[in-house]
Amino acid sequence: MLTRRITAGVLRRVSDLAYRAHGGRSTWRLGVHGTRQLDALRDLEHRFGLHVRTVLYVGANRGQEVDLLCLAFPEAVVHCFEPQSECQDDLRVVAARWPGRVEVHAVALSDSVGEATLRRPSSHDQAASLLEPGSEMAVQFPHVNGWAGEVVRTDTLDRWAAGRTLSDDVLLKMDVQGAEPLVLDGGSETLRRVRLVISELAVVPTYDAAPDMHTMFDRLGGLGFRYGGELEQVRGQDVTVVEFDGAFVRSQVSGVV
């Protein structure tokens, strides 16, 4: 275990230096907030004895957190799933900073293979969802408006993962605006390989049919994950917490030798 931690520390340092050598310092600055996120991710891996080598980043948007994930987990391949056509170019630019480590998949992960209508606002594309915005959206986030539909391709996590090599340990990061159950429904087999889940949790759901935090705790608990802690908060119009990112860890990979 000690050797593994020393090796991981060396790889993180090499990753940091390589990123700076390729212009990372000028193209993306961690800042205080980003440094805290980086420390939190590394703490999760260290605290639970994980060795993340595959990241499934569902809802990657324009790649705002790709650099963070690559730095936090320097041996990991990061698979980015993002269906929005307007985000693809920016996401691929970020991915190109990490040759051989980041793959972009222009698809929405859901519970079925085919097509679906993605609801996206004109003012804030990070709020795009396969679900309809609910009444609380206008209350909590009045600046998120101008909603329109975009037909996107859908796939299930299990179908996508079939025949692919996903090196352990696997991290599933979901940023899908209330559509987390759809991702989980379409990935029951793949989830057996996942050791760490990072997911948005809604204190106040802002999308129709979106689960609240209690429902997600029960769902992930039923899949064998334990709560590992809070990572980040989003506050609404009245500055109370509307949603936050929660980490869930599985002590063993289910059914995998």
From TrEMBL:
Pfam families according to UniProt: Methyltransf_21 (PF05050)
Keywords: Methyltransferase, Transferase
UniProt superkingdom: Bacteria
One GO-annotated biological process of the protein: methylation
GO molecular function list: O-methyltransferase activity
Record-annotated Methyltransferase FkbM domain positions: 58-227
Keyword Transferase included in the entry's annotation: yes
Protein name, per record: FkbM family methyltransferase
